[in-house]
Amino acid sequence: MKEPPFTITESIFNYSMRIAEILGSLNTLRLKKPDVSLRKQNKIKTIHSSLAIEGNTLSIEQVTDLINNKAVVGPAKDIKEVKNAMMVYDSVNQFNFKSITAFKKAHKLLMQGLIKDAGHFRTADVGVFAGNVVSHMAPPSKRVPQLMSDLFSYIKKTDNTALLVKACVFHYELEFIHPFSDGNGRMGRLWQQVILMHHHAVFEFLTIESLIKENQEDYYHILGECDSAGNSTLFVEFALGLIERELSIYQNTITYIADTKEKRMRNAIDHFKDTWFSRLDYMKLHKTISTATASRDLKAAVENKWLQKQGDKNVARYQFKKDVKL
Q1: d(CA 53, CA 80)
Q2: The domain containing residue 302 runs over which residues?
């Protein structure tokens, strides 16, 4: 089996460590499960962003209406793309990320009624165009089955490469191989999420596709740079950067369930570490507590010598003392 070429750079290492740190912090906390409306909103953003990258003209409001079973006026093809994507993302956590059969099934659902060979690898040679210029000539169709078999073997293999990194490598390699006659971009983004969800359940609630859409020019430029370089290193760096950004956004918006000051302090030390923070920062971390509760927590922590304090009242700043164990 030939493994995909890439190099673990300092940037990849640092991104991976920061992502692992955030995931580790989330693992130590009791989190309020995102409500149905937030999960639905994330699905809408994911579907709209991934399809918009491929030229779908429907607005996010129209995608929302379709998901809510409302009539939408628009190109039939664009509406069909959204309805197909809805079926796929409704069952995204049921796909086995290691299975080529599941991978093809997802493509069939995503592209049914749009292309004749939905769910099947292409049987003709293809090129990717940027305007009138061929920007990427995909491998010959006869090589696709073996290349995809190798790629899934790489994903399944137990080695020292984190699944987090493999998800990004898979995304790039899929775009390079271009195994289907159409739908490769959306499948690359979908399967990256499927792999990431196996790595950590929190990825079900993230919308990395929206960040790709916001950085679409860079996305395609880096894919081209990797084609020229003959490896996916730059793309892995790019994708990990987006993942870290989306995780940070999520971490700053979720609600922690911490019903005692000791639990809230453990959350705080995981979050703030050795940085200075204010009472307001503490309340943003614990969104359900009152100002009075925050003040009592912080006062008790200072008295217990967990925290050091500078300033007074509204301008007070706090920092956890070194080697504090809660």
Answers
A1: 16
A2: 261-320
